Amino acid sequence: PTNYSVYLHKKIFSLIYASNGGFNWHDVYYMPTKLREFYWNELIQAKDEERKAYEDVKKSAGKPGRSARK
């Protein structure tokens, strides 16, 4: 396979895997490129927001005077 083919199939896998059943392979593979890029960018943005929220909770749980749930 070409480098682009590997890149494309990894991107398709990631989009399907992260959508939790929202997309299937056929739909993503045959989706117009601009639309696929839109969903890819939305996925990246959502994952960045999840990571930031996780880091904020992790930081606030470690501050003195606040008890972490056990």
Number of strands: 0
Broad shape = elongated
Portion of residues within helices: over 70%
- Rg over C-alpha atoms, rounded to the nearest angstrom: 18 Å
Report the β-strand fraction as a percent range: under 5%
Task: Return the string of H and E elements.
Answer: HHH
Description:
- The chain is mainly alpha-helical and 70 residues long.
- Helix content is 71%, strand content 0%.
- It contains three helices and no strands.
- The chain is elongated and about 55 Å long.
- The mean pLDDT is 89.
Any descriptors?
70 residues; 71% helix; 3 helices; mainly alpha
In short:
With 70 residues, the chain is an all-alpha fold. 71% of the residues lie in helices and 0% in strands.
Sequence-ordered SSE layout with sheet pairings:
Layout: H1 3-18, H2 25-29, H3 33-61
